[in-house]
Amino acid sequence: MHYFRLAALLTGAWLAGSVFHLASGWLARNTVQNLVWRPRPEVSTLTVNLEPKALGVLLRHGTAEAERRLTRYWELSQILLGLALLAVLFFAPGGKRYTLVLCALMLGCVLFLHWFISAEMRALTPATDFVLDTEESLPRDRLRSLQTGYWIIDWAKVCLGLVLAFGLIKRSRRRRESAELG
């Protein structure tokens, strides 16, 4: 069985999903701002009785709910992917220890995000979803700092994954070249 090919496939799926998750969160936040300040004519006729601030709060709440649900399911999927990748790398014959360490670090990042950062973010969100941008809010400031920390840790995990993917690709090329020579 081609353990390292399977490991490369799992790593690629994990990285692609992570980048997609980060990009979708960023796009969702920017889309709400664009809808509030430059609404389409169809939206304007439907929201005649709503002022832009109230519409923004309502749209941000819907976006935040969708993003929280997506994040929760993606974190659970990452835990399963990480455990599967760890098992493949552990049982691969002739595997290198650094690939296991990188995978364990990536899985550790996800577990930390899931049980500590995301849990606190979910606890803060009911108090922050309906606060206007012009109002001061300590829970909203705390949530934004947690979101920044989440993004930093998630990008660190992606960088670890890129190093892991490079190591797996380099290893498979060396094995193929040595098989052709021998």
Textual characterization of the structure:
With 182 residues, this protein is mostly helical. The chain is 86% helix and 0% strand. It has 5 helices and no strands. The model has no long low-confidence stretch (mean pLDDT 87).
Low-confidence stretches: none
* Strand proportion: under 5%
**How much helix is in the residues?**
over 70%
Order of helices and strands: HHHHH
Q: Average pLDDT across residues?
A: 87
Structural category is mainly alpha
Largest sheet: none
Continuous helix count:
5
Q: Please give the radius of gyration in angstroms.
A: 21 Å
What's the β-strand tally?
0
- Through-space gap between termini: 20 Å
User: Which overall shape is indicated by the principal axes computed on the Cα atoms?
Assistant: elongated
Notable characteristics:
single chain, 182 residues, mainly alpha, 86% helix
Concise account of the structure shown:
By secondary structure, the chain is an all-alpha fold.
